[in-house]
Amino acid sequence: MTQTIPKTATDPAGFRTPSLFYGAAREGMRDLLAQPQVWRGERRDILLPAFIGWSANEGSGVFDPVTELGLDPGFYDLTEDLAVDLPALKARLDERRYDVVVVIHYFGRTERAIGRIRELTDRHGALLLEDLAHAWFTHALGGPAGRTGEVALYSLHKMLPMPDARGGMVTYRDPARITGQRETEPAFSRHLLDHDAVGIARRRQENFRALTALLRALPERGRAFELMWPELHDDDAPQTLPVRILGAGRENRDHVYAAMNRDGFGMVSLYHTLIEHLRDRPTMADLARHIINFPVHQDVTPKDYPALVGSFRRALGSLPEQAQAGGSLHLTAPR
Predict the structure, then answer these.
(1) Could you tell me which residues are beta bridge partners of residue 73?
(2) Beta strand 322-325 with 291-295: parallel, antiparallel or unpaired?
(3) pLDDT of 108-160, one tens digit each?
(4) Where in the chain is the domain with CATH 3.90.1150.10?
(5) Kind of pairing, strands 19-22 and 168-172?
(6) First to last CA, the chain
(7) pLDDT tens-digit series, residues 275-289
(8) Would 293 disulfide with which of 43, 189, 240, 249, CB 3.0-4.6 Å?
């Protein structure tokens, strides 16, 4: 008698999304983009979002491979809260052929239009590459992040206590897209299994919501700072909690960053400087000058936040210049 349903799964291709491990996500991205099969002709045009950071110490994780491989980049606009501007993306795809389109899930927040973006890239024959450098735990919660594009990038050392603060992963929805790629750090795979990804995701969500509630209640909100994302979706696990520090220039943000780190609170300013190609875009350049990121990682608990918020208020209160007008605090850059 022929068995209709076997006792266990036997199809090695079923739900298989092979992952390759590297010292860093950018290394895996470069390995992918170096493959001739990615490109449909002699031109190697790649379309990226118009908010990409750079630093003197680390370069640019998503843009360095583009430069190193001599690719021809284009950029599409984002909204002020770093969501994809779909009409702008469509316009760029209509005006020129791009073989690769990159979407970044900023700070672990799912790009909610990712399904419609996939429809656009399919229509234009482009490979959709999801950058989830900040979103491994968002992916673990089962939403569309990392499950919509053909290829997904992860920066493991930004999510987990990896050896020597290294670790990147590239996941492929279609194993046939692995042509000549060669992973360099296969042993890093075990660190994913050593941690409770969903438990960490839930802790990060708890931290984000607890800290957001404290920040929302501050009298300085709306005058000295603004929350970028006041709400968190159930399938998002944040990498950090981003806030805009108000005021002219970047001096107020830099002052808050320095003051809070002196107090022992690990603040960061991600994307504080854009790559040279994007510095003439007013909206994104302005955001880069004002953004600061609060820690919500799994080593923190909500009980740690009152002291952090106290440090934040002291930093706001000690800004170099404050002018009172009409009962509101107006923050400006120092002369």
Answers:
(1) 46
(2) unpaired
(3) 999 999 999 999 999 999 999 999 999 999 999 999 999 999 999 999 999 99
(4) 198-321
(5) antiparallel
(6) 88
(7) 999 999 999 999 999
(8) 240
d(CA 193, CA 185): 15
Token duo for residue 27: 């290394």
Cβ atoms of 52 and 275 within 8 Å: the answer is yes
The verdict on domain 198-321 having CATH code 3.40.605.10 is no
Burial of 328: CB neighbours in 10 Å, binned 0-12, 13-18, 19+: exposed
Q: Are 238 and 232 in contact (CB under 8 A)?
A: yes
What would the pLDDT profile of 300-322 be if each residue is shown by its tens digit? Answer: 999 999 999 999 999 999 998 65
**Domain 19-193 top-level CATH class:** alpha beta
Question: Where are the domain boundaries for CATH 3.40.640.10 in the chain?
Answer: 19-193
155: helix, strand or coil: strand
pLDDT at position 323, please? 36
How many residues are listed for the chain in this entry? 335
Q: How far is CA 193 from the centre of its chain?
A: 22
CA dihedral over 51, 241, 259, 165, signed as positive or negative: negative
- Contact between residue 296 and residue 208 where contact means Cβ atoms under 8 Å apart: yes
Strand-pair category, 240-245 with 127-131:
unpaired
Average pLDDT for residues 31-55, to the nearest whole number?
Answer: 97
